[in-house]
């Protein structure tokens, strides 16, 4: 009898652990795993439930891609998990958005939406066209497009369609130059609370500012994409509302929140800088 009680005492913590509801990171790892997930539907709701009726996302992704999940943000109501997909030649990122549902105690966290930067289909053929240009055509291109020369377009498109890790690496390699842009804008009192509504166009027509932005592959600076009045947005590129860029906001309390409907990801890069994408 005493051996039975000892075994029971050893097993009870395991039973208790197994019964704990899955957290967002655990759900994400199951959802993008290469094998199927029998309990998947219990952890999906809304849009995500409609998109994964018979197969998990992991089953729909090519098996050759490795998957790396990382919890980006979690509070009492929402959570965001980033998923890096990569193989020997490519890297891509998707973002899983979760919501806490207190009415389902067994599975309180639900995956509600899967997001990635959309409308990038034109990027790869544009990049190939530019990469394959012979020197004579590059010279002609630069004459016709002095404000967006060949080297700028190559670097800009690579960032636009590139992985988050590539954008972060570009930023860290050029962080002093990015900081000089901020200092220049502050010295010229650009985007102050009393700025005119049409100031953005005038700011981006500043030749000295453009000379600082062009080596960084930034197309423009803005304050209209994230609804964050005191933020500086360094736009890399995008089509319509599907934008990728870098955000400068030294006050973390003013950084916009993430949602599947607008700001699909904001990743901290350090010292008040963030990578962001919108939809």
Low-confidence stretches: 1-9, 11-18
Number of strands: 9
**Beta-strand content bin:** 15-25%
Shape: globular
What is the spatial order of strands in the main beta sheet? Answer: 5-6-7-9-8
Biggest beta sheet summary: 5 strands, antiparallel
**Structural class given helices, strands, pairing?**
alpha+beta
Number of domains: 2
Order of helices and strands: HHHHEEEEHHHHHHHEEEEE
Oligomer: single chain
How many angstroms separate the termini?
A: 63 Å
- Give the averaged pLDDT, no decimals: 92
Work out the helicity level: 25-40%
Helices, by number, come to 11
The radius of gyration over CA amounts to 23 Å
Structure description:
The protein is α+β, with helices and mostly antiparallel strands. The protein has 2 domains: 103 residues, Nuclear Transport Factor 2, Chain: A; 156 residues, no CATH class. Helices cover 36% and strands 24% of the residues. The protein has 11 helices and 9 strands. A hairpin with an 8-residue loop joins β3 and β4. The radius of gyration is 23 Å and the shape is globular.
């Amino acid at each position: 009898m005493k051996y039975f009680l000892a075994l029971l005492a050893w097993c009870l913590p395991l039973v208790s652990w197994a019964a704990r509801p899955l957290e967002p990171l655990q759900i994400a790892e199951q959802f993008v795993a290469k094998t199927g997930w029998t309990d998947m539907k219990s952890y999906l709701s809304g849009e995500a439930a409609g998109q994964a009726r018979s197969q998990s996302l992991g089953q729909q992704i090519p098996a050759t891609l490795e998957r790396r999940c990382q919890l980006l943000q979690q509070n009492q109501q929402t959570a965001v998990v980033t998923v890096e997909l990569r193989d020997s030649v490519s890297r891509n990122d998707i973002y899983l958005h979760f919501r806490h549902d207190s009415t389902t105690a067994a599975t309180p966290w639900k995956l509600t939406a899967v997001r990635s930067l959309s409308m990038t289909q034109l990027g790869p053929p544009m990049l190939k066209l530019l990469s394959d240009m012979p020197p004579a055509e590059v010279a002609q291109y630069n004459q016709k497009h002095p404000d967006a020369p060949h080297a700028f377009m190559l670097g800009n498109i690579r960032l636009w369609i590139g992985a988050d890790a590539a954008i972060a690496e570009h930023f860290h390699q050029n962080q002093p130059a990015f900081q000089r842009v901020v200092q220049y804008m502050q010295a010229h009192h650009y985007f102050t609370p009393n700025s005119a509504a049409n100031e953005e166009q005038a700011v981006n027509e500043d030749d000295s500012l453009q000379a600082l932005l062009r080596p960084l592959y930034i197309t423009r600076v803005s304050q209209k994409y994230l609804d964050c009045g005191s933020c500086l947005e360094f736009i890399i590129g995008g089509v319509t509302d599907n934008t990728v860029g870098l955000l400068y906001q030294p006050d973390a309390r003013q950084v916009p929140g993430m949602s599947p409907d607008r700001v699909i990801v904001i990743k901290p890069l350090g010292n008040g800088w963030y990578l962001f994408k919108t939809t």
